[in-house]
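FORM 7B: Structural annotation worksheet

SECTION A. Query
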Amino acid sequence: MGKLALFFGVTDFGSMIVEENVVTAAEKEHKPARAVEIIKAVESVGRSVAQRNTRYEVL
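SECTION B. Predicted structure
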C-alpha cells in the first residue's frame, strides 16, 4: 500500500505508519517495517530517499 501511495502525493513514508495501538485494537498482528525495507520500497518505484528531522530538514 505504501508504494502505491507514493504515486498519489505521499512524500513522507513515516506519516503513513499506523500506530501499534490502532492495529492491536483491531486484533491484527503488527510487524513494523525495518528502515532497510522502507528504503527498498521507496527506491523500487524510482523515488529518492532522505531522512529528515522534526523541522523537515534533510539530515
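SECTION C. Observations
Helices lie at 2-5, 20-25, 35-44. DSSP finds three helices and no strands in the chain.

SECTION D. Sign-off
Analyst initials: ____
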